[in-house]
Each structure stands twice: as C-alpha cells, then as structure tokens.
Amino acid sequence: MREGDQPTVINLFLDGWGRRYKDLPDGRRQVVSFFVPGDLCDLNIFILRQMDHSIGALTPLTIAEIPRSAFEEIIDRHPRITQALWWEALVAAATQREWTMSLGQRNAAERIGHLLCELFLRLRTVGLTNGTSCPFPLTQSVLGEATGLSLVHVNRTLQDYRAAGMIVLKQRELTIPDLRALMEASMFDANYLHLDHEGRHFDANI
C-alpha cells in the first residue's frame, strides 16, 4: 500500500513482517513502525480518502483482508472485541510516543537496544520466541531507517553489543542472552507495551 492509494480493507498480519514508512522526495525514508504476526494494520483506515503513508513487506507475508462490511459487523455484534480493539489502538499510540522519545532523546546504543527489546517482547507475546532467541529479518539499513541512524552508526552499535556479549545476530535470528541487561543498557521500560494490562481479559472468552 503506497501513499496516495485509496484504502479498502483492514489487514491482519498472520505471518511475516512489514513496516509502515514515509518517504521524502529525495528518497530518504523513515520507518515509523514494524508489523509482526498478530498485528492489525490501521483500524481507522476507512476514514481516510487516501493513504498518508506507505506500508511494505519486509518478508513474504500472509495477511487476512477484512472488508469494511465485515469489520463493522464484528464491532456491532461483539462489544468485547470492540473494547479489545480500542486497547490495541491505545498500545499502538503509546508505542509511537516511545519511538518519538527514542528519536529525540536516546543515543545510538539506546535506540538500537530499545528497539531490539521491544521487538523481542512483542514476538514473545505471540509465541514466536524460542528461549532467548527470535526471528530477526531486519537488515542494518532498515534498522537505520527506523532509528534515524546512519548505516555506519548502526553497524558500529551492533558490533559493540556483540562484543559486550549482549546480543548474537546470526542467520536472521536474534539472541539476547541477558534481556534484563540489554533493557538496562537501553533504559527500556516495557510499561508502554502493557504486557500485564488490565485488558488481558479481552484475550479470551470473546
């Protein structure tokens, strides 16, 4: 989906990774969020006459397209699902605020470490981690687009984390031997992800 396209459906990511991004006329790109399995893309998309940003795949994707009529029926007939969707929207907004904090205040090491912690915890929430490891298809270039860092800064930061034994990146897999240590190094507080949220009762018996 490209900026300027007319949105027609809500997309649910079933498998694979995607990104939301904005491009400048000269080709510079800012990634503003990542999608992993289980994520919904733009609940309020039907309000828009045209997309004001782009969404692209980072890996092969499997998505479910939810048309407007089906989505409106779900909302009308299942109020608990509606509440859960509101909760999801609030978490998405909180995550966007945290990304803004990273771009404005965190240094290179903190930005990279914070993003790695966030993605690992999001994947763990949907059962896609294996112990201290998780899939990690992001290139250094994409990491730079998400963190506002040059490729040189991204490479140097990852090498520093590797040398300190805090991460292992190998064959599109990320391993974090000591998650707490990486969280402390990047000043990561998971409260914005609301992993132990009061809305956890929305996860079942809907």
Structural summary, described in words:
The protein has helices at 68-77, 79-105, 108-125, 140-147, 151-163, 179-185; strands at residues 9-15, 18-23, 29-35, 40-41, 54-57, 62-67, 133-135, 168-170, 173-175. With 206 residues, it is an alpha+beta fold.
Describe the secondary structure blueprint for this structure.
Blueprint: E1 9-15, E2 18-23, E3 29-35, E4 40-41, E5 54-57, E6 62-67, H1 68-77, H2 79-105, H3 108-125, E7 133-135, H4 140-147, H5 151-163, E8 168-170, E9 173-175, H6 179-185
Antiparallel strand pairs: 1-4, 1-6, 2-3, 2-5, 7-9, 8-9
Helix pairs in contact: 3-5, 3-6, 4-5
Instruction: Report the count of strand segments.
Output: 9
Instruction: State the name of the first-level CATH class.
Output: Mainly Alpha
Shape: globular
CATH architecture verdict: Orthogonal Bundle
Structural class: alpha+beta
| Number of H- or I-type helical stretches | 6
String of helices and strands: EEEEEEHHHEHHEEH
Low-confidence stretches: none
Rg calc: 18 Å
Strand residue percentage: 15-25%
In helices, the fraction of residues equals 40-55%
Strand arrangement across the biggest beta sheet: 4-1-6
